[in-house]
Amino acid sequence: MKKLIYTLALGLLIASCQNKKNEHVGHEQHQPEAATSTSSQSDNSKKSIPLEAHGNVGDAHVSVYYHSPAVRDRVIWGGLVPYGEVWVAGAHSATSVEFSKAIKIEGMTIPKGKYAFFTIPGQERWTLILNKNWEQHLADNYDQAEDVIRIEVTPETEMPLTERLTYTIEDKGEGSGAIRMSWEKLSISLPFKTD
């Protein structure tokens, strides 16, 4: 009799554990659906996400690798991103740009390869920088001596809101292109030629 009671109690305990396990598994099965939701609210609640931008301009392939932060109701320019300081043009690691062949920026030949893309934001003008040291954390190890080129551009302001920092590769035809960064209500463009 004791053996029967023990067997029944053990059976009930196992069944109870199985039910709890199934309830937990069922909960986990619903979790990915919520995580993969494309609603902007859930996407923008994340601090930053790794993204890539790819495009062809003429016969050159251009890739940009970056971490994309969201505005999240913050003051970006002159706030989160100060004016007059070297900025990684993204979050976490240095934003990197890779060219599959040599390109030209303002008449200067930039050899094919991978570069860090930095900026120095200003209220009126921005400095755009390609730097040899593409693998670094933020601008912690930035060294101006490793700059390949610096150019000044005027940002486009009062653009439609871009909640999450975004890069695009623009093919303007006849071997001309640009790497465009847009965030908040501002956009900058690094023009280049492939011929």
From TrEMBL:
Pfam families cross-referenced by the UniProt entry: DUF2911
Superkingdom as given in the UniProt entry: Bacteria
Region of interest: Disordered: 23-52
InterPro entries membership: DUF2911 (IPR021314)
PROSITE patterns: PROKAR_LIPOPROTEIN
UniProt name for this protein: DUF2911 domain-containing protein
Source organism of the structure: Shiella aurantiaca
